[in-house]
Amino acid sequence: GNSVTQMEGPVTLSEEAFLTINCTYTATGYPSLFWYVQYPGEGLQLLLKATKADDKGSNKGFEATYRKETTSFHLEKGSVQVSDSAVYFCALSGTSYGKLTFGQGTILTVHP
Amino acid sequence: GAVVSQHPSRVICKSGTSVKIECRSLDFQATTMFWYRQFPKKSLMLMATSNEGSKATYEQGVEKDKFLINHASLTLSTLTVTSAHPEDSSFYICSARGRGKGADTQYFGPGTRLTVL
Questions:
Q1: How large is the average pLDDT for residues B45-69?
Q2: I need a labelling partner for B22 at 20 to 30 A (CA). Which of A18, A22, A42, B61 fits?
């Protein structure tokens, strides 16, 4: 079956530091890949997505590239802000009604 | 675009009562809606998938008689927690998926915090 593995958290950074959150996946076929962000007490917001190999998703300074050869979709940001503090979920969508398979989530805390 | 709302955002009820949570897609037609449950500091657990006009498909271990799901229109799905007990207390999140371009993307509601006393 499909699975998503994210790097263990929590991740604590100082403002303006470089961020990488690793995500690898196992899936049959050609899934779409997503990063969602969840702020405290809220639902999930789509951060970015990529639908085929070598696609790069980007939004709000965050980027992730769909790497089929390494089955990875690592999230990066060059300079984090305190407002980026949240939980980040990597996910993939297979073909069954678009069901999502989530990673376990990574808590990011950014200090001033 | 692609906004999903949930109502209520918080609900507190007594043990044994039933609670209904609504999930609406505000600016698109949702052919499929999903209901998740999230425990503190945990990932989302898919409870069920519902397609408009048909019965929901429940994930293994989810009691269909306890968590009633109705997807009566292309913009509304409801989750009813029947005879709620304290162990049903949780954060319930819905998501919706449209059709055509972007149909591979789920858009999430803001969640409903259920507390059963």
A1: 91
A2: B61
